Give the backbone structure.
Amino acid sequence: MKWLPFELHTHTPHSDGIHTLLEMCRKAAELGFRGIALTDHNTTSGMADAAQVTEETGVAIIPGLEWTTFYGHMLTLGVPYCEWRDLGPKDIHKGIDRVHRQGGVVGIAHPFSLGSPICTGCHWEYEIQDWNQVDYMEVWHETLPPMRNHNAPAFEQWTNLLNQGYRIAGTAGRDWHHSNDESDPPAYTYLGIVGDTDALTKEQAVDAIRTGRICISMGPLVTIELQADGQSYHTGDVIRRSDCANVETVELTVRIDHPSIASRRQMVQEEGLTVIVESNLGECCRSALADGATVFQHSIRPEKLLWLRVRLYGMLSGVLSTIAFTNPIYFED
Amino acid sequence: MKDLLIVEGTLTPLSSKTHITYQFNIPGPAESLRIDFSYSPKVLDDKEQARVLIEEALDKYVDPSLQAVYKEQWEKFAPLKNLLTLSIDDPEGFRGSAHRHPNHQHHVLSPHESSPGFFAGPIHEGVWRVTISVHCVVTSECRYQLHIREGEIDHEVASI
């Protein structure tokens, strides 16, 4: 498996974006992305150029769409257009089924953005009857996402849902409409890609999101591994409680890989990082990393754990901030 | 050029979050379809009305602890705008949409090329549908015009 940075929320002139797919993918390559999801508002016609643009830029293009409806914006990935115009505020599950039946995944875009009439349909107002049907939530939205007000309640809602036992992936999305050099930096959504990574497919990206093999970061890739009774588990994996019944603790290893890209290394200070281990029981541990250290280990008692994730905290463009977070490793009875 | 549909209408804020669908028949295969769509006004000019609507939205969507700070900066969210978008279904199904903000739009659909947002492909005979999605009307009235024609092939695939 390889971890590759993706941008999962983008637009072109096929909806209201300014840059063409080619211009955007050239810029994406410069920013260090290996793939993007093309999520134009309510159409997939922009995919017509995708193969050629990938050939020219090396950036994989996953077909997607942003359902830009009256009651919320929902990202769909891996499927063609699915009908939304007949759905009311209590009908979202009918729509989610249409995407799932074709093998795609759905994600709630920017759930706490301001809604109509400031931004039409941008605040999530659909009634969700079963959160198990929601594959992912865009908890980091726009550029410099840890510093945006509307992402705080999104991250909190995600955590609350995890606490209730739902397994929902957390992603980032720039909502990228325009390429220019003056913009603040976007986050990476690192996806854990299984199989051949030379010619990335939509199935590989969809599988990573569905499985929760995801790390969100302003730069460094953070991966987690839990050793339980001789077995190894990674981001997105589920540990059965019976598989760690014989041990008092499970052993967590956190690895931090700083990206090679110079602009990212300047933005995220590699000294003074703090590793925070979070779970449904709250913060399990908070520890300053020795300068230059890229591995952190900690023993954790597994009882009563439903999920566990790691957050990296430190200096981002001169401000103390969350720099990265993993998706959880889950526990089940 | 042959006219297929010429319609217009007047909307009020009550029409926000509704769809208006027109269904029309194309009697035989055509070389292209040309769509002109416009609506007006685009912007709510009345500052006091805008302020009331913005403050209502901030009450609804912003955490109570931050509402006062946001309301001080209410002008950042002005001017408020009407947003109507167009989508098309051909006899086979969804043919594309133009979710964008300009209030004067021209689209062409043809076998080998279509305006951004729409799929290229044959202009089959049969029943077509065009849908105006009324995302938001903030002005007391908003008038729209929609004109669809059957046309010949040329190299003009314009879009605004």
Remarks:
- The domain at 2-43+81-151 of chain B is CATH 2.60.120.380 (Jelly Rolls).
- The helical segments of chain B are 47-61, 64-72.
- Chain B has a mean pLDDT of 95.
- Residues 47-61 of chain B form the longest helix (15 residues).
